[in-house]
Amino acid sequence: MLSRVRVWLNRTYAENVFFMDQLRRNPSDRAVEIHATHGDPDSPVLAAADTADLEPEGLSPAGYVEYALDQCVRRGIDVFVPRLHQAAIVAHRAEFAAAGTALLAPTREAVAVFEDKATAYEAVRSVGVPVPPWWRVRTADELLAAVGELEAAGYTPCVKPAAGAGGVGFRMVTRAPFSLANLAGFPSPYVQLDLVVEALRRADEQVDWLVMPRLEQPEVSVDCLTGPDNRLRLAVGRTKNGRRRGFTLDERWLAPARLIVEGFGVHHLSNIQFRMLGDRPVLLDVNTRPSGGLHQLALCGVNAPWAAVQLALGEEPGVIEPPFLGQDYTVVSAPRPVGPASVPRQREAGITLPAVPAQAGSAVAALPL
What we know:
Layout: E1 5-10, H1 17-24, E2 32-38, H2 44-48, E3 51-54, H3 61-75, E4 79-81, H4 86-90, H5 93-98, E5 102-103, H6 108-114, H7 117-125, E6 135-137, H8 140-152, E7 157-161, E8 171-174, E9 190-192, H9 193-202, E10 209-213, E11 216-226, E12 232-241, E13 244-248, H10 251-263, E14 268-277, E15 280-287, H11 304-312
Parallel strand pairs: 1-2, 1-4, 2-3, 4-5, 8-9
Antiparallel strand pairs: 6-10, 7-8, 7-10, 11-12, 11-14, 12-13, 14-15
């Protein structure tokens, strides 16, 4: 009988409760035990895990690596899926391997390329992947010059941090003056150029932003699974156009994603995002981690989390072709239990957990982080 697999997810997105569900419902009927850590005691991933710990706050990246190695040894972790401090963790891959833990994460070099969007755009452009025009700005004068060039070309300028994830810090820039209309209804993604310039001139330090045109829908996120041999095992595009979601295997999206993951060592699970600039797709972002919506591939008959764990363990899942593409859908919120507010509940040591039988279909929902 195959031994159970222990998987650890650190400070991950709340949507990854579905990632955990899919690991337990794996088609190999393998028993899986899941460990989770988070800084928020109310994170649903803690309640969904078999064992859980609250993470210490204020650790440096080096300190976090020490904490992570200790977790892997104490918990007997077979596969670690790092989100927080991914760059520092993959730099110590050999130490985790010596502790008996495989990292489900890309190479150190790939993480370094794609944690900075400007570096990423330069890199992928060199291998023929189309990127939008962009300017890296640190001062008010650089911002004004970039916005002026985009406006002259007929684009709506946008600004976002050069490093970051999840759309944090993204704003569209407008010259319309601030008015009471800005205080009506929901907050707007638009920000007044004069207010941004004033804030920059008052700031004590430089910013590190990218200025680029607003890209149009559809947005296509290509979920990829790539082996340490740089060969792609799975690529499925998830489309988003307003509220409507769907799936695609169109090579307009898959071909550039394949170039990126195979060419830059983006091993294991990743997510490559594209949007439209005029009538052509261009790269939006490269996420060197599983996407929050990865579980939605279950609607295509694919269990990507389990295939990734197999690959991390040295087991070959082969090239995975979706048996079908699911129908269009939308994403809604659903209730999910949370754990006690003090200490997360732990399973008793030594109990072998049975596998959860695979199910033909599953409900898809999303929870906020």
